[in-house]
Amino acid sequence: MTDSTTPAGWYADPTGQGDARYWNGAAWTQSVDRGGVTVNVPIDPSQAQVPPLPGTQVAPPSPPASSPPQTVNVSSSNRSPLGAILGVLAVLVVIVLIFVLVSDDDSSDDTPTPGTDAPAEQPADEPAPAPTEGG
Question: Which of 11, 18, 27, 85 has a Cα at 20 to 30 A from 63?
Fold first, then answer.
């Protein structure tokens, strides 16, 4: 049910999602004023055509003096892919660090590789044999 006698304009937001919401003369729009900034916030379709209450009209939001009015879409589908990219990069850095740390642990083995020219190690606790007389 629409009230054709209610003129288009800004009225107190019946949903409480902003300071004011725009009534186009037949239904509420997604335009919501929040502290002088206009944002798009969907309205429940069951409330969209309920006309504003008499006496709730407000002055149009005034844009900042130095810049044009801002419109911001408030929606979970408008997320920047930057967050996802940074998350993937963080995971890759952790994987590389784990790989490097595990690889360094394997290379700390002091035993010579078979087939190399490394000198054989003498046990430190055995004394050298004493020369024998008479021989």
Answer: 27
Residue 116 included in any domain: no
Structure tokens given for 125: 């606790």
Amino acid identity at 81:
P
Q: pTM of the entire structure? A: 0.46
Nearest to 61 by CA among 33, 40, 41: 33
Domain of residue 43 covers 9-75
Summarised one tens digit per residue, pLDDT across range 13-58 is: 999 999 999 999 999 999 999 988 899 999 988 898 999 988 999 9
What is the tally of structural domains in the chain?
1
Q: Is residue 86 part of a domain?
A: no
